[in-house]
Write a structure and sequence with these properties.
Blueprint lengths: L1 H15 L3 H14 L16 H13 L5 H8 L5 H10 L3 E3 L2 E3 L4 H13 L5 H4 L2 E10 L9 E3 L10 E3 L7 E8 L8 E4 L4 H18 L5 E3 L4 H4 L4
Parallel strand pairs: 2-5, 3-8
Antiparallel strand pairs: 1-4, 3-6, 6-7
Length: 233
């Protein structure tokens, strides 16, 4: 008899895809109410109206950099940050870091276009003589004061989600390096602000010059970063 009950219990557990607690809950509900359907209205009740949910999403769409605290104060009713995150997630909006680009002027765009047109017919052999170099800044603190933006997947490069800025706002180090087709320069680490004068004294003269001298016919290619274009005395 016990073996038969155990087999029935196992069969019911497999059918319900649950454990003994699930079977016991269904049995108690059946003996009490005569049904195994979940009671209507069980679970947490909805605290916000559809209109308030739309207001939360609309604020993030109008101003992608809006913070949760600002949304809390503008909704007009008490709302916790978890609710704001859930409503924005339901609208497929996630908090991401904005895409950062260098602020380019119309002159920069024109010069870049001229540079591309002048080299449109270059082949692989021509490009082997070009030395590309760049510098990257690494923040040393845990909080870099970055402002997030609310955006959907695939919207990273939208103009409303892009921040044009030359430098970061907190302490860090600047790493510089250059390379061409077959070789690379020494990695240089510069602490503090990399000004135009420091770029000449600490990078160009002691490192870039000797590196280019060892590559006959090399062409140094720089971008429009501030240390590369700043006037020096």
């Amino acid at each position: 008899m016990k073996l038969g009950c155990a087999l029935v219990l196992v069969m019911v557990m497999c059918w319900l895809e649950g454990g003994q607690c699930t079977v016991r809950t269904y049995w108690e509900q059946w003996t009490r109410d005569g049904t195994h359907v979940r009671s209507t209205g069980s679970g947490a009740s909805r605290k916000k109206t559809r209109q308030e949910d739309r207001r939360i999403v609309r604020q993030a769409l109008v101003d992608p950099t809006v913070t949760s605290s600002t949304i809390q104060s503008d909704v007009g009713v008490p709302v916790v940050p978890q609710t704001i995150s859930r409503r924005l997630a339901e609208a497929n909006l996630q908090s991401k870091r904005p895409f950062r680009v260098l602020p380019l002027t119309p002159k920069h765009w024109r010069l870049c276009l001229q540079w591309c047109h002048a080299r449109a017919t270059w082949n692989a052999t021509d490009w082997q003589h070009v030395v590309f170099s760049d510098e990257s800044r690494f923040v040393l603190r845990t909080d870099d004061n970055r402002v997030g933006v609310w955006r959907r997947p695939g919207e990273r490069y939208n103009s409303t989600h892009v921040v044009a800025r030359h430098t970061a706002r907190t302490a860090g180090v600047m790493a510089w390096g250059g390379h061409n087709y077959a070789s690379r320069s020494t990695l240089i680490v510069a602490r503090g602000t990399l000004t135009g004068q420091r770029y000449v004294d600490d990078i160009l003269r002691p490192h870039v010059g000797p590196f280019l001298n060892g590559l006959p016919g090399a062409i140094s290619q720089l971008d429009n970063a501030r240390p590369n274009t700043a006037p020096v005395g």
